[in-house]
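STRUCTURE:
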């Protein structure tokens, strides 16, 4: 099977497939005499695992571990579950951080009149200022 066939079956681009190969995330495909890559159903499985793992938030190193587990017939589902639950905890922590940022931004927006004035509580707060910005008044010449 050639790379365009694999791309169609996996939903990945040829570029992504080559990238995963370059990073050592999939088993290297055999090369024909003309140098073209030749893929098997094992490559399809590895690439589908990579694609799905990336979609649920695993980074490249974590994907490498998942592919290694996939290819290890002596793996333990407990190891896969532990990695998955670790990723869930990481995502939950990120969600908490995002909610804190969202709350702060909403508080900042609520403090700002949003008018034509140069005085902006959002800028003042983010800059750590505790006073209003006074416009510079030019004296008449």
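SEQUENCE:
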């Amino acid at each position: 099977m050639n790379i365009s066939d694999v791309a169609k079956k996996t939903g990945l681009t040829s570029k992504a497939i080559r990238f995963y190969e370059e990073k050592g995330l999939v088993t290297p495909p055999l090369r024909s005499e003309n140098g073209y890559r030749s893929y098997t159903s094992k490559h399809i499985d590895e690439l589908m695992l990579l694609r799905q793992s990336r979609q649920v938030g695993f980074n490249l190193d974590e994907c490498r571990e998942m592919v290694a587990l996939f290819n290890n017939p002596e793996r333990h589902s407990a190891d896969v579950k532990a990695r998955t639950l670790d990723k869930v905890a990481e995502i939950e922590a990120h969600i908490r951080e995002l909610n804190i940022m969202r709350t702060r931004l909403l508080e900042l927006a609520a403090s700002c009149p949003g008018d034509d004035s140069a005085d902006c509580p959002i800028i003042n707060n983010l800059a750590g200022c505790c006073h209003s910005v006074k416009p510079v008044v030019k004296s008449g010449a």
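REMARK: DSSP finds six helices and two strands in the chain.
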